[in-house]
């Protein structure tokens, strides 16, 4: 799959490439996600196992602005729309409130931006801890 890193941490092209790959992956399983034969729980599993890893590959190195966060959320909402379908709010009759409120309720995982931030923090902690361990080993200390 590969990832593109630069010394200025210019990741706009990397995120764009990941979203393009995610869209291709989403398109390849689109019939399954819109099928009435599979339960919503299976469709969510397909999303978590097949689509999200393609988009999130290498995300531990990303640092991005609100515009890229928004494009990642839009991608996730598009996939969830295929799973949960276009159901509107019964009170107002609009579908937009359903997307914002109910997708988060129906899809029990955190949104894609939170997942990325969590992975970045875990990587930073791993590097910080690993750096301390390597430093002690090189000076003959115990870990």
How is this structure best described in words?
There is one protein chain. The protein has helices at residues 12-28, 30-34, 40-56, 66-84, 96-106, 112-138. Helix 1 runs parallel beside helix 4. 67% of the residues lie in helices and 0% in strands. The chain is mainly alpha-helical and 143 residues long. It has one domain.
Number of helices: 6
- Give the mean pLDDT: 75
Main sheet makeup: none
Shape: globular
Order of helices and strands: HHHHHH
Low-confidence stretches: none
Helix proportion: 55-70%
The radius of gyration is 19 Å
Q: Strand-residue fraction? A: under 5%
- Total tally of structural domains: 1
List the helices and strands and how they pair.
Blueprint: H1 12-28, H2 30-34, H3 40-56, H4 66-84, H5 96-106, H6 112-138
For this entry, give a set of tags:
143 residues; globular
In short:
The protein has 143 residues and is mostly helical. The protein has helices spanning 12-28, 30-34, 40-56, 66-84, 96-106, 112-138. It is built from 6 helices and no strands.
